[in-house]
Amino acid sequence: MKNNLEKCQLSQNEIQSKIKLLVLSIFIGFLFYQFGFNYAGISVFIFICILSLGFIIINKIKVVNYMGIFFMIIAIFLSISYGIYTNYIFRFLNKLLIPIALISSFLLITYENMELEFNTFITLVLDRVFGISIPNITNMPFLINCIIKKNNSDKKNGKMKSILIGLLISIPVLILLCIILANADSIFGHYINNIVFNINSQSIATVLCKLLTSIGISAFVFTLYDSFSTKLKKTKADNVNNIKINSIVVITIFTMVSILYIIFTKIQVCYLYGRKDLPQGFTYSEYARSGFFQLVFIVLINVISIILIKKHTEYNNSTEDKSLLSLYSLITILSFNMVFSAIYKMKLYIRVFGFTRLRILVSIFTIFLAFILIILLIFIWKNINLFKPIIICGAIIYVGVNFFNIDEFITKNNLNLLVHSKSIDKYY
């Protein structure tokens, strides 16, 4: 968009496309003004559908990318959950995840040969928002001026387009004037309230704040959608990707860690699963129920470490390579025991203290980690793209959890557990 502003060389098709985008952006800003400051419900679904449909109408689907379509479907499903459940945790998370899913979808259905690598893709998404769209908001007045000048040179359609631009500019002006007049005359305000704007007792400051925010949303949507009309700039590889680790060092570290994990697994098999007589001072109930979060944390560290170290380790011969792959696999297999142990411990803990949101969500995350370990084991030997299957698996599980009535599940099961235990967290 910047080059167009500097040269002000827009074709007739480009002008028409940008006018359509401007109308769409104003309409989206109007919808945000109407729904964005109220309690989020089915309006979120309507808003996301219009954003998706508007993008397809303006920019078209240039590449049939199934991951792009998948991301758009995920965003739409997450928006539907606002009209069904009221879980504040998911409502907060979805405010972040829905825009990320939409922008990811737009990138994938617009540009060919998109690399679905974690670092590259996240950089592209962040750059699209903070590096292109937001900075270009300041260029909008110059773009509108460029369109007006271009239209003035067209004698045939100049008047109609000037009228259209005048109408578009007059909309926020009329809204602002109506707000001020509505506060100046209560009868006028009453009729305006009933007919169009649904403004009742809001102060001028509140309305102005909402109006400015809505205008900001309109401008952001315009610059974001307009940015997809330009070619994709390939990001430069970070210096971090060039870091290489000596394979002998890695083999030594992973060998020591593997020995520790084998000892830990042997102890768990004997005492946790086999119920061998515990050392003096330990009770099985306390031993079995403790350590869940620590195990989940270690499994997460194992997964991240293997992915990063495998990517950055430099080996000198096939023997070192096979040794590394074997150690990665051994630690991954031992991590399966930690996942199973964590789930087993949480099951025993819930049996005594009952269900809570945190316990359920962390248990689901642990199961997700088990799926990641399976994918990781394949990645170690086949060198597949980890990001794509993990995203698909995680997105499906997350959407499923959004439509799972956690509070109802907690209430029903805790009432059943009360019969056998008096230690249930009765708050739930």
TrEMBL record:
Keywords: Membrane, Transmembrane, Transmembrane helix. The keyword Membrane applies. The keyword Repressor does not apply. It comes from the Bacteria. InterPro entries: DUF4153. Pfam families: DUF4153. The chain crosses the membrane at residues 21-54, 66-85, 92-109, 129-148, 160-184, 204-225, 245-267, 287-309, 325-346, 358-379, 386-406. This is Membrane protein. It comes from Clostridium novyi B str. ATCC 27606.
